[in-house]
UniProtKB/TrEMBL annotation:
Residues 4-325 form the Adenosine deaminase domain. This is Adenine deaminase. It catalyses: adenine + H2O + H(+) = hypoxanthine + NH4(+). Pfam families: A_deaminase. It is an enzyme of class 3 (hydrolase). Its EC number is 3.5.4.2. The active site is at 192 (proton donor). Signal peptide: none annotated. The keyword RNA-binding does not apply. It comes from Microterricola viridarii. The lineage of its organism: Bacteria, Bacillati, Actinomycetota, Actinomycetes, Micrococcales.
Length: 330
């Protein structure tokens, strides 16, 4: 039995593997700037968040039809299931597609269809969190959210991603007010490259229930205290942090310190096709760097369950399976 996992910080577009990029480019007659997989793979050396985003936005241009979005989602779910993921709360960026002429309902509908199918065939339950691009106008995000709320595809939550520095959470207060009024769950990227002040305003002005990344919170002891007191989850992505140069190496990652401080830390893969691995690879890298015990790995898995938007019965079932896994460890 594999350790049952919950994944809470995963950009579906960030699961677009190089092979699938070429497959979809061919299917859709899209001209890529790279002639071979090797040439594409050579682009994956990032210096910061923006250098990654530049490639991410070019590559997702191969996603055109409803079937493409379903394929992307199904491939992720298959890989996640193999890693032991039982529940995934996935991010999807509608604006990255609507601004290049893809119909909202095709993009969102293809994702939703595959998520429902994945629950049936792979046993991976899911929630769909629509993320808004913070480096685009808040009015555009608001219009998309209104369109989604009036449309056929139900969503579970909203988030905020893309370039962080210079785009503080408070720009999106109206979007989050609408999301809250519509009964959606609220998360936001904050404190990845941005300062602790962005985590404060994500909490106070957006009312988020989880902070995505949040690792720069460690620079502000009063903020850490608040996160601990409120049991506010942080969705941490170790391999992403290394590849985007937020930390130097896995061995320098502050995960052990975060756990010692009593933060509710969860482990996630962010953009696994770009950052060198899926959730199991992230856990394996941490285990190698920090020699995690089975009990520590089970704690990280339990944190994922606690931080999820599953109902109490769904959480109880996963806690029981994690306990069973731990009891079976040597
Ligand atoms: O890792 C990320 N950070 C911020 N925005 C993003 N959009 C896709 N992936 C990311
Ligand atoms: Zn992210």
């Amino acid at each position: 039995m594999r350790l049952p996992l919950v994944e809470l910080h995963l950009h579906l577009e960030g699961t677009l593997e190089p092979e699938l990029i070429f497959e979809l480019a061919e299917r859709n007659g899209v001209q890529l700037p790279w002639r071979s997989l090797e040439e594409l793979r050579a682009q994956y050396a990032f210096s910061d968040l923006q250098s990654f985003l530049d490639l991410y936005y070019v590559n997702l241009g191969v996603l055109r039809t409803r079937a493409d979005f379903a394929t992307l989602t199904t491939r992720y779910l298959e890989r996640a299931a193999a890693a032991g993921v039982r529940h995934a709360e996935v991010f999807f960026d509608p604006q990255a597609h609507t601004i290049r002429g893809v119909a909202l309902d095709d993009a969102l509908g293809g994702v939703q269809e595959a998520l429902q199918e994945g629950a049936r065939t792979l046993g991976v339950s899911s929630k769909l969190i629509v993320t808004f691009l913070r480096d685009r106008p808040a009015a555009e995000a608001l219009a998309i959210l209104q369109q989604i709320l009036a449309g056929p595809v139900p969503i579970d939550g909203i988030g905020l991603d893309s370039a962080e520095l210079g785009y503080p959470p408070e720009l999106f207060a109206e979007v989050y007010a609408l999301g809250r009024a519509a009964g959606l769950r609220l998360v936001a990227h904050a404190g990845e490259e941005g300062p602790p002040a962005y985590v404060w305003t994500a909490l106070d002005l957006l009312g988020v229930e989880r902070v995505d990344h949040g690792i720069r919170s460690l620079e502000d002891p009063a903020l850490v205290q608040r996160l601990v007191d409120e049991r506010m989850p942080l969705t941490v992505c170790p391999l992403s942090n290394v590849r985007l140069r937020v930390v130097d190496t896995i061995a320098d990652h502050p995960l052990p310190r975060m756990l010692e401080l009593g933060l509710l830390v969860t482990i996630n893969s962010d953009d696994p096709a770009y950052f060198g691995g899926y959730i199991d690879d992230n856990l394996a890298a941490l285990q190698e760097a920090f020699d995690l015990s089975a009990a520590e790995r089970a704690l990280l898995a339990r944190n994922g369950v606690e931080a999820s938007f599953l109902d109490p019965a769904g959480k109880a079932a996963l806690y029981a399976d994690i306990d069973a896994w731990l009891a079976a460890q040597p």
